[in-house]
Amino acid sequence: MTDQLVRGVALGGKVRIMAVRTTEIAQKLREVHDAGPWGAMALSRAASALLLMGTTIKGRQQIGLQINGDGPLGEIYGLADAEGQVRVTVAAPRAEPAEPTEGLRLASAIGFGRFSVMKKLSDDQPPYRGIIPIVSGEIAQDLAEYYLSSEQIPSAVALGERIDTEGISAAGGYLIQALPGADADELDTVLRRIESLPPLGDLFSMGIGPAAILDRLFDDAEILATTQVSFHCPCSREQFARKLCTIGEGELRRLTEADEEIVTECQFCRTTYPFDRDQINALLYGARMYDKAD
Q1: Where does CATH 3.55.30.10 sit in the chain?
Q2: Cα 55 to chain centroid, rounded
Q3: Per CATH, which fold does 237-293 belong to?
Q4: What is the C-alpha to C-alpha distance for residues 249 and 282, in angstroms, rounded to an integer?
């Protein structure tokens, strides 16, 4: 079963429903970042959250998630687009909680700090940024709190994974948002079903897909769209060459005097782009233009 996202409505159109399977994405992220258990959980849940949030944007818009906790994992940062493509990084992917914990609780490795959502809605406008304090550190509860406090949308969010000796064998999540006019009694029924639902990692590992999970929560779930989702990083050598130009001519010359080669690395996919001395010298003109622009 490939990774996919479904979105639709329920309760007579008064509730938005989204669910996503991200098993392949989560395993790819774990491999790319050589992540330990807590790092893999953080990458998996951030990717699932971003893809669910991506259902609220369209076209060339982007949505970002930045979690800055005081725990050993450090910053978690990711981006997703409206086409179902996502990329995520974590500062210390092999970190473990400072204090012994019972079981794999992500909150112990994230800690307390800031939970930020960024929306890039157009090329000619600055991105919108909403920031709340981390309330849980498990990411799902934090996202639900963000929607309630920053966008005034009551939401239920669940993110989960199953970790075994081979890595992440199942992962995904769902997002349910009440629209104006939703019946309180019907919402209470949904909450009771949510509480009785088995862990998401177990459901996905049994081969139960996103649409079937929503069917367990609603009697009238109507799926309006299904999207294939994937890990994708658009980095390139040209992109990193432009970044090197922005550090200025003086700094570039200093680097070439100190080393025969400069190696840059993409934080999302860990691809390296080496530049030898001749290639750096070719970039000096561009760096000089940046200096003049400043």
Answers
A1: 4-231
A2: 13
A3: CBS domain Like (3.90.1280)
A4: 11
pLDDT band at 155 (very low <50, low <70, confident <90, very high): very high
Q: Which helix (H) or strand (E) holds 133?
A: strand 128-133
Closest CA to 37 of 68, 72, 3: 72
CATH class of the domain comprising 4-231 = alpha beta
pLDDT category of residue 291 using cuts at 50, 70 and 90 = low
Domain with CATH 3.90.1280.10 in the chain: 237-293
Phi-psi region of 77 (alpha: psi -120 to 50; beta: other; left: phi over 0): beta
Q: Which residues touch 243 (CB under 8 Å, ≥6 apart)?
A: 264
CA–CA dist 261, 279 (Å, integer): 9
Looking at residues 235-257, what average pLDDT do you find? 86
Rounded-to-integer distance, Cα 37 and Cα 95, Å: 9
Q: How far is the C-alpha of 187 from the C-alpha of 288, rounded, in Å?
A: 61
Whether 90 shows a pLDDT value over 70: the answer reads yes
31-57 tens-digit pLDDT? 999 999 999 999 999 999 999 999 999
DSSP 8-state secondary structure symbol assigned to residue 198: P
